[in-house]
Amino acid sequence: MTSAATPSLNLVGEAEWQRFKQHLELTDQFALIFILSDRPGVVACFRERLAAIYRTRVTGLAIPVPQTPDALLSDLLPRLLRPTLYQQAIDAPIWLDLTLTPAAAASADQTPAAGPVAAWREARLAFLMRLNEQREALRRTLTRPLILILPREEKAALRTLCPDLWAIRQFAVETGGWLAAAAVPEASVIASRPPGQAPEPFPLTMAETSLVSEWQRLRERGGGDHGALLAAERAYEALMRRSWLDKATEIAAWMVKTARAAGETPEALRDLSVSLDNLGGTDQALGDWEAARAAYRESLEIRRRLLSRVGETPEALRDLSVSLDNLGGTDQALGDWEAARAAYREGLEIGERLAAVLPNHVDYRGLPDWFRKRLAGLDAPAAA
User: Fold this and answer.
1) Which helix (H) or strand (E) holds 105?
2) 197-383 belongs to which CATH class?
3) pTM, rounded to two decimals
4) How far apart are the first and last CA of the chain?
5) Is 11-174 assigned to CATH 3.40.50?
6) What pLDDT digit, counting tens, does each position of 227-263 carry?
7) What is the DSSP string of 341-357?
């Protein structure tokens, strides 16, 4: 069992977690596992659940955190390829999250050097290419699973630049928005913590702090254009990654207010819909599902208006499917199964149209299966 503080997964997420957990339970030697994700909350849930399992054993889950881009190659790579005898005797997996710039060191008097986002991305790809070159040495010397968490958007680069590393994987999963619907039969047990109570945040990195500072600077200057909203979006994402929900809510509310004042152009309307999605995301993370549903519902209405104005472009349809998924998730979490089913069915119809027109587009080809899983998740409790 997971602790009450661990976020809940929906039915699809629970199924994928069980697959992941079962694979690890059947593995007593080296195994390369990829988690490709743009959903830090889901990654954190997997990590905390896995860490809870290994806390009960002699050796806990290993979570190395390189402090600079250069440390990926100078420190972490040698530790993987030339582990000490003690490290070889440990059977707990290594959890290596390369999706984020690392957090500050645990002790207050340590300040890690920061690098720009581009430097981390370059170092990450260089690290993976070196692993690709030395994959056989990795398999010979590492006697436990290595779990690599990578940005979902870099899957194509991974397969192109590191084809042999990808080929020796034993397991891979691409996460979805699996925190969107707590698949429970009653609204009274939706959240594990009271509405409005934020989890303990993780320290911000220097790069993440700079993103928040840049948004604050633009806000104080009275910036309210599209560029200021983009800066706010980057700051919001950084704060959400580290569970700074109160500050993220402040930014999301500012984005909604700013976007509302920008007029009725297609760009302004899309900015408003994105801002409402962000506000719904923080409400949801805080356990206020009714407020989240209101934000997602307004975002959906705006995207329907946009669709009528700009036509059925792939982007407009994709945005509409996102709103349908968000709203369906909150409906499901609140026990409104029929409303959730209607949203998922419309999302499936849109996904099938997009996948038929653009079958090779990474953002569209998986949409039908995603909504089919969502619908299957609705049917599972009734069948149980």
Assistant:
1) none
2) mainly alpha
3) 0.52
4) 20
5) yes
6) 889 899 989 988 887 778 889 999 999 999 999 998 8
7) HHHHHHHHHHHHHHHHH
